[in-house]
Amino acid sequence: MPVSAVILTRPRFPENIGMAARACANFGINRLILVAPELWLREKAEALATPQAKAVLDSIVVVEHLADALAPFSLAYGTTARTGGWRTGIVSPAGAAAEIAALGPNDGEVALVFGPEDTGLENSEIEQCTRLVSIPTMPDASSLNLAQAVLLMVYECFKAGLDQGVYPRRKLGGRKNSPPASLEEMERLFEVLKTTLIGIDFLPEENPEWFMLPLRRFFRRSGLRRHEVDLFMGICRRINRLAPGKDREEAGCLAAAAAACRVPSSAQGLGRTGDCPGPHQEE
Ligand code: SAH
């Protein structure tokens, strides 16, 4: 069940009302009730509200007493920075949110109740609430800004509601990832890569597999996806198209030159052309 309304009791600053309205809009609450506000100036509130929050500001109902605001609700979660003394049975925001999300349509409507910026809710007001919630903080700095307390509470309730399917999920941007490349696709890529790299004299024509080993390891480690295989295939195609055709004679010369310039025994004495470093010793 979603939270039906946020009640601000005796709020002092219209800016906080604007920010609270914005938080409500962000997290799916479109009813804001003000109990005896000290100062309610729409323009000042609007300066801190988004276009969506303006609809919440439009919905504002001002009442004289907390009891009037609470009348239509079955459950009221009062919020307090103070946790000592007689205040027992205080729940955490996540605990309250889980309780609320688990409610069914026959359980009645839920309101979150907040106190004024300076003093917080009076005892008589807390007594009218069915539950008491406190947002955990450092012990010596427990008092949050009113609108920030609203934000944290409505966020927690929204999060719990999302898991219960109470609110629609926002689509996360970006294209869907293609599936992971199959071993067959990887092999096809390695084959094309090998031919391409031989074609541009990066790999020697003799035993190119040996020099492909570090590349194979690199690509395997990177967890290629299908579209990324296609990307590398495309790059290879382009290279092949641009690379000047190697005639046999030239290829023979290169192979001979490569053989003359032998790499260490770890590379099995094979010559190399171009910049191919061959496999790392430790691999
Ligand atoms: N000095 C007051 C704090 C007022 S802050 C006090 O000690 O209670 C204004 C309102 O923000 C509070 O009435 C409460 O509704 C909310 N709030 C601030 N800090 C909070 C916290 N740590 N947990 C829950 N609500 C909090």
Describe the structure.
The chain is α/β, with parallel strands linked by helices and 283 residues long. The protein has two domains: 5-163, Alpha/beta knot, CATH 3.40.1280.10; 183-267, Helicase, Ruva Protein, domain 3 (Orthogonal Bundle). It is 44% helix and 10% strand. The chain is built from eleven helices and seven strands. Strands 3-2-1-6-4-7-5 form a seven-stranded parallel sheet. Helix 1 crosses helix 3 (51-58), helix 1 packs parallel to helix 7 and helix 8 (183-199) runs parallel beside helix 10. Mean pLDDT is 87; it is low at 248-273. The structure holds S-adenosyl-L-homocysteine (SAH). Residues 79-82, 114-115, 117, 119-121, 134-135, 137, 142-144, 146, 149 line the site of S-adenosyl-L-homocysteine (SAH).
Annotate the secondary structure layout.
Blueprint: E1 5-9, H1 14-26, E2 32-35, H2 42-46, H3 51-58, E3 61-63, H4 66-70, E4 75-79, E5 90-91, H5 93-101, E6 110-114, H6 123-127, E7 131-133, H7 146-163, H8 183-199, H9 208-221, H10 226-242, H11 248-260
Parallel strand pairs: 1-2, 1-6, 2-3, 4-6, 4-7, 5-7
Helix pairs in contact: 1-3, 1-7, 5-7, 8-9, 8-10
Bound molecules: S-adenosyl-L-homocysteine.
